[in-house]
Specification:
Shape: elongated
CATH topology of the largest domain: Immunoglobulin-like
Largest sheet: 5 strands, mixed
CATH class of the largest domain: Mainly Beta
Helix content: 10-25%
CATH architecture of the largest domain: Sandwich
Number of helices: 1
CATH superfamily of the largest domain: Cupredoxins -  blue copper proteins
Oligomer: single chain
Amino acid sequence: MEIHRFEKVWVGASILLIVGFIATITYGAVGAGVTMVNDSGGTIDPAALNQHEEFSDPGVRQVGENHYAVYIVAQQFIFNPGTGTPIELPAGSTVTFYVTSADVVHGFNVVGTNVNTMVIPGQVAKVTAEFPAEPKNYGIVCHEYCGSGHHEMAGNLRTVPPSEFSLDGSGSADVDGETDASVDIDGGEH
């Protein structure tokens, strides 16, 4: 049986495409360290957040010399803390975010960093990041549609010089008054 040469070319191209897809997925999982959402942060009853030791009073906690834990509750259409009051951290610190949802699926993205995760009711998303030594303002955005006010769900994170940082939030640092990515009323970044 003779196979036409164009059929051979298309079969070869198809096999190369499949091998390329497999190689891309393998590189992403092994080489680049991309991981799937998991429950490494634990699980929680979203109806009982007000009774949880950390999420009943979300905020910044110092857990090491230059390591902080930030507990955040996402709910329609705010991040607590983050929306009304910026999250304030010392510049140059390592921060582990523990984020959960009180109602529906949300997204949590600190613009300009590697912090980007889904926030699922009943699960605690755990993401660790190292912030640069220079003070800076960062925008926080929800990137999963969560209802009619989704486009307004945004917050701020501010890193300040370590000498101006205090856990009670009384630091008087003002970096430059602007976030790296502010969100306008239609939800677009500019």
